[in-house]
Design a protein that fits this description.
Elements (H helix, E strand, L loop, with lengths): L1 H27 L13 H6 E12 L4 E6 L3 E6 L5 E4 L2 E2 L2 H5 L5 E7 L4 E7 L2
Parallel strand pairs: 4-7
Antiparallel strand pairs: 1-2, 1-6, 2-3, 4-5, 6-7
Length: 123
């Protein structure tokens, strides 16, 4: 029994040390954190994801789009008032996006809320 206690104590000390080192790594690695004035939090940056693939569907009434990716399959995302829609690099709208089914699309989105930050259709 004493052998297991020693093992558990050593394991806990190791885990605690690893947790401390992990918490300090961001500052030492030169990680940049946005100013408070920007309105962005660390959580916002962690929740941001990107995907590329074919624009599979756009539902203008529901305000959603679906991107077919090779790695993650179909990704359905909501479009908000803050979502940027770009076609060929120029600002566009949801109705024009609906005309671009099967086009190559790149999306930046919030992976938690599943909402589009920016969608860009290549032309």
């Amino acid at each position: 029994m004493l052998k297991y206690k020693n093992f558990i104590v050593i394991l806990l000390v190791f885990m605690f040390g690893a947790a401390l080192l992990t918490g300090c790594a961001g500052e030492e690695a030169g990680e940049t954190v946005p100013d408070d004035e920007s309105g962005l939090s660390d959580n916002h940056l962690q929740d941001t994801a990107t995907a590329g693939g074919a624009l599979k569907a756009v539902d203008t009434a529901a305000g959603t789009l679906t991107i077919a990716t090779e790695s993650d399959g179909d990704i359905a995302l909501g479009i908000t008032d803050e979502s940027k829609i770009l076609i060929g690099g120029s600002p566009s709208n949801l109705e024009e996006l609906a005309d671009k089914i099967d086009s190559e699309a790149y999306v930046e989105y919030n992976s938690v809320a599943k909402t589009v930050t920016e969608v860009n259709i290549k032309e």
